[in-house]
Amino acid sequence: MIVPYGDMLLLAIILFLLGAVCSISRRNLLMILIGVEIMLNAAGLAFIAASLKWRLLDGQTFVLFIFAVAASEVAVGLALIVYSQRRTGSVNADQYNQMKG
Amino acid sequence: MKTYLFLLLFFPFVGGFILAVIGRYLPRRVAEWIACASVLGSLLMAALAFGSAGEKRYLLTLFDWIQVGDFSASMTVYYDPLAAIMALMVTFVSSLIHLYSVSFMRDDRDYVRYFCYMNLFVFSMLVITLADNLVFLYLGWEGVGFCSYILIGFWYSDVINATAGRKAFILTRIGDVAFGIAIALFFLILDQLSIFSINSKVASLSAGTATLLALLLFWGAMGKSAQLPLIVWLPDAMAGPTPVSALIHAATMVTAGAYLLMRLFPVIAVSSIAMVTIATVAAFTGLFAALAALGQKDIKRILAYSTISQVSYMFLGVGAGDVMGGMYHLLSHAFFKALLFLGAGCVIQALHEEHDIFKMGNLRQRLPAVFWLYLVGSVSLAAIPPFGGFFSKDRILLSTFSHPEPIYKFLALIAEIGAVITVFYTFRMFFVAFLERPPLQEDFRKKDLKIPKFMVWINSPLAILAIFAASLNFPEVFGGKSWLAHYLASIPGGIPLFPTSAPIERSMEIGSGLLNIAVLIAAYFLYRPEARFLGRPTPVVFRQRLEELLSSGFYLDRLYHVALVKPYQAIARTLWLKVDEGTVDDQFDATANIFRSFSFGLQLWTTGRLSTYLKMLLLGFTAIVSALALGWYYLR
Amino acid sequence: MTLYAVIFYVLAAIVVLSTLLAIIQRQVVNAVVCLIISFIATALLFYLLGAPFLAALEVIIYAGAIMVLFLFIVMTVKVESDEDAKAEIYRWLPAVVLAIISFIVGGVLIFEIPGSKISLNTGMASPATFGQFVFETYWFPVEIASFLLLIGLVGALYLGRRESRKESEDRP
Predict the structure, then answer these.
(1) Which of A26, B166, B594, C159 has its CA 20 to 30 A from that of C141?
(2) What's the pTM?
(3) C136 and C99 share a domain?
(4) Complex ipTM value
(5) Out of A24, A97, A100, whose CB is closest to B614?
(6) Is the peptide bond before B386 cis (omega within 30 degrees of 0)?
(7) Over the stretch B81-106, which tens digit does the pLDDT of each residue have?
């Protein structure tokens, strides 16, 4: 007997929102990506909880795929950050405003 | 008889129609012939009808015009002695004026339009003269108004003329509204639109209804005949060609108002309030116009104000219950006023379009024929015995004086003062324009004064009639035969309601005759050739201010402009700028602006910064989740 | 309150706390380190919830590979630390407000789920069972995931290469 299902989902929501806040209110591109990672992690937690509730392994399978996707996404994202830092010389999200208007 | 009356109306109409359609393609002489022949044909018909009618009356339907349910307006004519005399006068004077116009308009290229509308005008006037059905009469009424508008503004390329025509039309229209209401009321109350039937059913009208009807008719007549307060169009109407002024504003249209009241006299006679009103307005208009004529310098404007004054005498006659007197004055006025206008036309053309009497002079030697004709006309207008104008005007004054109500004595006094002033201004005009004058800067004596002889001699019949109009109704107290009185005795109002006793009549006639002659002599002294003040450039008898007051017609025009025209224009301007452009047009702009400002607001979101877009993402996420929750919550 | 519940709440507290610390940090390195702690705690949580294989994978991939990659990039990339404190609250405020709103809504939603108050029984999915399940039912997504990893590799390689001088002249 662990905790009720609701508590687990509540934890997942808290973590997700923490990641969202980080992603939104930080200017550093790296911190934005870290926020994304936190959000993915929280989603995975929710899946594991659901899997435990319904006694199915599908939830855990999806977490596996989340890991795979997160990994490749981080790789490409960081490569993009490096590339754009070389082009514009800054990792400040506010500097990239040529699409204004 | 029916043929005569039908042709009487048909000839001028068809003349105008032909000229309208193919007049341009006809040679000039042919077009003029058609115009004059049609009116002369009417004259012939009028004479034949007069001859064969005797003292009988005829009620004939010429054409069934409108028939809707209970309402029927057919072109019916009612030919009684009043209509007979009027038709004769109208056709006679119109024929003379048409012939005069042939010569007067010899240099004008728009003669087709002129003669076409003159013919149509004669047609409309004859309709008014003869019509029995009120709607048919209204047709003629509107017809003369329309033709008068066209003919006043004949030389429309000059904006002043067009404006004068428009002014005439609008002012007479104001009167016509009342007349139209009266027609509707006649149909409503009496179920009749025939003058003959209305006159026979007069007993069934209550005094109040009759007063209302009479006042409405009077207002309509005031518009056409230029009585106060609707007088301001007539002086400006002198912008038209002189024959037009002679025809319309001397003999026919301005008398149509008085004529209408005479035709419907039984209705008016029921209400004494209406009679008093008519008489009062007429008397004061007469005095007003006479004073205004005293201050004018333009010869035609003097004659215009004089017309207003003389027409008011006709109304005064109707108001005093003497239709015969009014008709008598109508006839003699037609003759001498037309004569004066045509003579003025001769003078104006001879002096190369000069209208100012103070710039004329010395015409006795240069234009002797015109001089004598004009003298005859002036003497008639001024009511110097023994010419026709004296007897007709005096007849009216007697009737007014004999009326039992005290107010009529006062009105008679006012009318008498007006008559005295008439003498004065008439001879001021005559002496200043025609007698010898000291030298001026612009000296017409050096210029060539050539006018066609025909134009001058065509006026002689009018002069003869003006002289001998007295014999039409020489008062019996002096041993004459009152033919006109006997002839018109059978029409309603033909016999004056309050006949004068013989001694009073005799003494008053002699007294006023002497008074007029005395004023003539006084005018001669003031305006004789050697008079000192005539040497100045613009000689004035009165002081500057007074002259301005009189010459502008007591500032009546300006009063109307300030009181009516300006507010109307202000309202129109407000409606145009504020409502039409401001509200309606700007509404579309405002609606478009809402979208513009909305877009501007939205523009603030497109900062191009990543952080903004991420915020938006979270906002959207929150919104969606909240919406889902609410939906799920309420559907549960 | 069983032992498992206590462990769950303790671990949950650690996760939340360390994540909170991570997002507040000014320096990226500090944030990454806090996040590693969070991930390890999450791994333990996974184990508690009956997914030991995934717990291991969390440590290996997430904490081990991804965060280390972050550290490498932090070292390579020059970060100018000019975060002024004045704009801090204005940047945080809308996010925090929205987050609180979402949290309340989400909380209400979770509260309404039938059966959300019932404590769950423990369970354990052994790696063998898990692997068998994955390759039997979801073998196709596995292949696609590997393809995805290949794409990521190629993309990262291309984006990360050093440009020769000729290419930088060609670029408009």
Answers:
(1) C159
(2) 0.68
(3) no
(4) 0.90
(5) A24
(6) yes
(7) 888 888 888 999 999 899 888 888 88
